[in-house]
Amino acid sequence: MNGQVTGVCRLLAIFIAISLLFGVLATGHSLAADAACALKNDQAPEDTIAQCGSVIENPNTSPGELSKAYFIRGSAYRERSYGDKKSYALALADFDEALRLKPDFIAALYGRGLTFYILGLHKKAIADFDAGLRLVPGDPIISFMRGTTNEALERYEAAISDFDVVIRARLPVNYTLAITKRGTLHRKLGQIDLAMNDFNEALRADPKFGYAYCERGQTFEDADKNSLALADYDAAIRFNPSICLRNRSSLRSKMGDKAGAKVDQDRITAIESGNHSASKR
Q: Which of 73-82, 133-142, 181-190, 271-280 has the lowest mean pLDDT?
């Protein structure tokens, strides 16, 4: 399942970037400290870190703008990390300072919670997401990440409740991902009809959403409907090559297609090798 997990992590990263860049969080304020120190999708993290550092070092920066600068620099440290624990530590330190200056800074609570989630510190992440939701009850972005964290803690019913909030909001950036993740939780709880309803709804909303095909395929495979499972795995890989190769390789092997399974394994090796090389750059 590692290939599938990697693909899901990429989907989460895209969702998180969109939510921050387009200000989906209900902060009520601009997230830019000034024209240079701002969340930008066309700027390297190192440039953001340097520019926000100048704002932070300026003795004339107001406490409010200083809090924003710490938040933005912390987000840039997290973005550049590629698994580097030192960068995550710097990100957490900046989020801490942003929250010291402005304890009700919703985006900083979210950013710190997200960093805790990435580091596997799920209970700390939940605490920050809970704090954010006390400030903005029902926020679909924070609810999404709390649901994802509850899922990691195997609190499946709580996660479903969080995803219910997200799905009702129908934000285009996360609707299909949330409904697919809810379907996966229903499957884990043995609620197969509810799971299939969610996967089918996700695919009606986005017929090219590879993750939903992969999760529906797993549900078919669990029920020994291998031909249907294989068709869904094929569709998942066609629309998103990083998702579901491991599932299909395992199923092909089980069905006696050893050559096909090896082709998939070779593709997995090539993708993982490419990811490892990218993480070193």
A: 271-280
Fold of 1-24+174-281: 1.25.40
H-run or E-run covering 62:
none
Contact assessment for residue 51 and residue 75, using Cβ atoms and an 8 Å cutoff:
no
The pLDDT tens digits of the residues spanning 13-65 come to 555 554 554 444 544 445 555 667 887 777 888 999 999 999 999 999 999 99
Count CB-CB contacts under 10 A for residue 133: 19
Q: What is the pLDDT of residues 217-269, one digit of tens each?
A: 999 999 999 999 999 999 999 999 888 999 999 999 999 999 999 999 999 99
Report, in angstroms and rounded to the nearest whole number, the Rg of the chain calculated over CA atoms.
20
pLDDT confidence of residue 10: 53
> Do the Cβ atoms of 103 and 71 come closer than 8 Å?
no
Residue 107 is classified by DSSP as: H
| Diameter over CA atoms, the chain | 70
Nearest to 178 by CA among 217, 148, 157: 148
Where are the chain's structural domains?
Answer: 1-24+174-281
What token pair was written down for 38?
């701002």
**Is the separation of the CB atoms in 130 and 114 below 8 Å?**
no
| Distance, CA of 161 to CA of 262 (rounded, Å) | 40
Alpha-carbon span 247 to 214, nearest angstrom: 8
Nearest to 198 by CA among 219, 227, 229: 219
Alpha helices in the chain (DSSP H): 2-21, 45-57, 63-80, 85-101, 106-118, 122-135, 140-152, 156-169, 175-188, 192-205, 210-222, 226-239, 245-254, 258-280
pTM of the full structure = 0.85
